[in-house]
Design goal:
The chain is mostly loops and 122 residues long. It has one domain. It contains two helices and five strands; from the N terminus they run βββββαα. The strands form two sheets. A three-stranded antiparallel sheet has the order 1-3-2, with no helix packed on it. The chain has a two-stranded antiparallel ribbon with strand order 4-5. It is globular and about 40 Å long. Bound molecules: iron/sulfur cluster (2 copies). One iron/sulfur cluster (SF4) binds next to helix 2. This is YkgJ family cysteine cluster protein.
């Protein structure tokens, strides 16, 4: 089993609206995220399907069980908000977004002790 805490979590993928400029989709030359996995938000932005809002936010690309084995099904193609959300303390800094999502799913916020030497993301 991987020691990376995100691969036992997935909480942020089932908490925040994941919105980004449409040009990040493969509808635009150089875009990566499959357009078909998104839906329009406004004339300039799209959202990952499942994250638009409401009471049951969960990105449709999230695989597995939150808090156990959740992981992104399109990791290499995920959009910029997913790159931007940093796990708390991976780089030595807090992450209020990470904490908020984990607490909302009944998970304890990460601490520096969750990052033993060599456990950080590549
Ligand atoms: S960034 Fe935080 S909330 Fe998101 S999967 Fe990683 S540990 Fe969980
Ligand atoms: S695209 Fe992947 S990383 Fe981004 S919210 Fe969806 S499951 Fe999470």
């Amino acid at each position: 089993m991987s020691s990376h805490p995100c691969l036992r979590c997935g909480a942020c993928c089932a908490f925040f609206r994941v919105a980004f400029h449409w040009s990040e989709t493969d509808a635009c030359a150089g875009g990566l995220t499959p357009q078909g996995l998104t839906e329009p938000l406004d004339p300039h932005r799209v959202v990952m399907r499942g994250t638009y809002g409401g009471t049951a936010v969960r990105c449709e690309q999230l695989r597995g069980q939150i808090g156990r084995d959740a992981h992104c099904g399109i990791y290499a193609l995920r959009p910029s908000p997913c790159h931007a959300l940093q796990p708390a303390w991976e780089q030595g800094a807090p992450s209020p977004q990470c904490d908020k999502a984990r607490v909302a799913h009944g998970l304890a916020p990460l601490t520096p002790a969750d990052w033993p030497a060599g456990a950080g993301a590549a």
